[in-house]
C-alpha cells in the first residue's frame, strides 16, 4: 500500500466532508466564471460595435471560459480552482495523489458539465462510492481531497 506523509492513500480521512465542501466550491467558481464571462462578453460587444461587425468571430470563445478556467486551475501547481482553494480542497490523481495533467483537467470539466446536463441527481453518487468520488472523477482518474490532509507535515 502506498503512503503519503505516513498516511495510506486509500485512507478515507482524505475525503471526509468533501461533498459538502465541493458544493460551496462549485458555487464560488460559478460566480467567478459568470463574472469572467460577463466581462469578456462586454469586451467583445464593444469590439464588435467598433469594428462594425467585422471582428465578431472571437466572441464565440466566451462559450469555453468555464472549460479553460477549470482545466487550467486543476493542472496548475495549486491543483485547485479558486473556489476549491476557499473550501480547502485539491484535485489530485487517484492512483498516486499527484498533480493532474491538463488532459485530465479537460476531461474532468467536460464530464462535469455533461453530468450537470444529465441531471444533478447523478452527483449524489459521491455519497455512496469509495473516497466520495463522482462519475466524472472516476472516468477522468481524479479524486478531490481535503488540502490539509495531504499537505506536507512540518515540524
Automatic annotation (TrEMBL):
GO terms for cellular component: membrane. It is found in: Membrane. Its main location: membrane. It comes from the Bacteria. Keywords: Membrane, Transmembrane, Transmembrane helix. Residues 19-141 form the RDD domain. It is a multi-pass membrane protein. Pfam families: RDD. The keyword Transmembrane helix applies. The keyword Membrane applies. The chain crosses the membrane at residues 23-47, 59-81, 101-128. This is RDD family protein. It comes from Acidisoma silvae.
Amino acid at each position: 500500500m502506498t503512503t503519503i506523509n505516513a498516511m495510506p492513500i486509500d485512507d478515507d480521512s482524505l475525503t471526509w466532508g468533501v461533498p459538502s465542501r465541493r458544493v460551496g466550491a462549485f458555487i464560488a467558481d460559478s460566480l467567478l466564471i459568470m463574472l469572467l464571462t460577463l466581462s469578456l462578453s462586454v469586451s467583445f460587444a464593444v469590439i464588435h460595435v467598433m469594428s462594425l461587425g467585422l471582428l465578431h468571430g472571437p466572441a464565440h470563445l466566451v462559450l469555453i471560459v468555464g472549460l479553460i478556467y477549470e482545466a487550467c486551475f486543476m493542472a496548475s501547481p495549486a491543483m485547485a480552482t479558486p473556489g476549491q482553494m476557499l473550501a480547502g480542497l485539491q484535485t489530485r490523481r487517484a492512483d498516486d495523489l499527484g498533480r493532474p495533467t491538463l488532459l485530465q483537467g479537460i476531461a474532468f470539466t467536460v464530464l462535469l458539465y455533461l453530468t450537470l446536463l444529465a441531471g444533478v441527481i447523478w452527483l449524489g453518487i459521491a455519497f455512496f462510492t469509495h473516497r466520495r468520488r463522482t462519475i466524472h472523477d472516476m472516468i477522468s482518474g481524479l479524486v478531490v481531497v481535503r488540502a490539509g490532509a495531504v499537505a506536507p507535515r512540518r515540524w
